[in-house]
Fold this sequence. Notes:
- The protein has ten helices and 14 strands.
- With 345 residues, it is an alpha/beta fold.
- The protein has a twelve-stranded mixed beta sheet. The protein has a two-stranded parallel sheet with strand order 1-4.
- Helix 2 runs parallel beside helix 3 and helix 3 runs parallel beside helix 5.
Amino acid sequence: xxxxxxxxxxxxxxxxxxxxxxxxxxxxxxxxxxxxxxxxxxxxxxxxxxxxxxxxxxxxxxxxxxxxxxxxxxxxxxxxxxxxxxxxxxxxxxxxxxxxxxxxxxxxxxxxxxxxxxxxxxxxxxxxxxxxxxxxxxxxxxxxxxxxxxxxxxxxxxxxxxxxxxxxxxxxxxxxxxxxxxxxxxxxxxxxxxxxxxxxxxxxxxxxxxxxxxxxxxxxxxxxxxxxxxxxxxxxxxxxxxxxxxxxxxxxxxxxxxxxxxxxxxxxxxxxxxxxxxxxxxxxxxxxxxxxxxxxxxxxxxxxxxxxxxxxxxxxxxxxxxxxxxxxxxxxxxxxxxxxxxxxx
Length: 345
């Protein structure tokens, strides 16, 4: 992608905010730039299936993202798979950092990574304009971590990446841990200490049925209530106020005010009513919910020659049909048509 010297503003101030039929304003876009991953985390992948979907060119991602921004998207998060595997990711961030909303504001730019390649890329990503990163890390014990990732020697590599991101001021630096009962729920208290010692925000995520296999059951979910109770036995927590209605995590700090814990509880305490997110897969499909059964081929229309106004109208129509909620745990629930690694977080 060729560099340019000035910010790119959207000319679309005449468009109303992107809103679904339930009255929710959509301002957060998650963009998967690859469904490849260099880890084989046992709760996510069978370990037998690699990339399944093609990737777009960087300029194509940029064009699609600009369409969303012109309709009111203010936050863009690059995901995967593992987005740092994607060649040109620093240049993509650099171009996105130049994009402006119709109000002239820069985008809120973030990236989710497993951290394995982060040590060398943290500084360049910050210099390119990335605001912050979230690192997926499911244990603070090296043996448990490597049993989950199925990659020998992975724990110290990720720890170095986290520290490099903190040094580069990609903050607030968040660590996401997916908890599975009987598998890594013995890490809860260790993660609470890790949050304080490493000056990071640790966020526990209730395990959702998004894996490639058939591992998920309600019994394996470690709930928000249990997490708070377990940490509170040795390190009392105080709940913090939400910063915005669409915030996914319930936030807590410790009694002395040092450190922060977040808990994302889509299973036990669903937050669908305030959802502000929509997703774009690595092959250019719109997904209006993680658990959507239908995908919408935005890129296919672009390749067929649709102009920007036609593409914007399509986005508006698809977002209008965004699901009211997921149905995890209900008799009619169906797993989504893609697993998490192929959707993008």
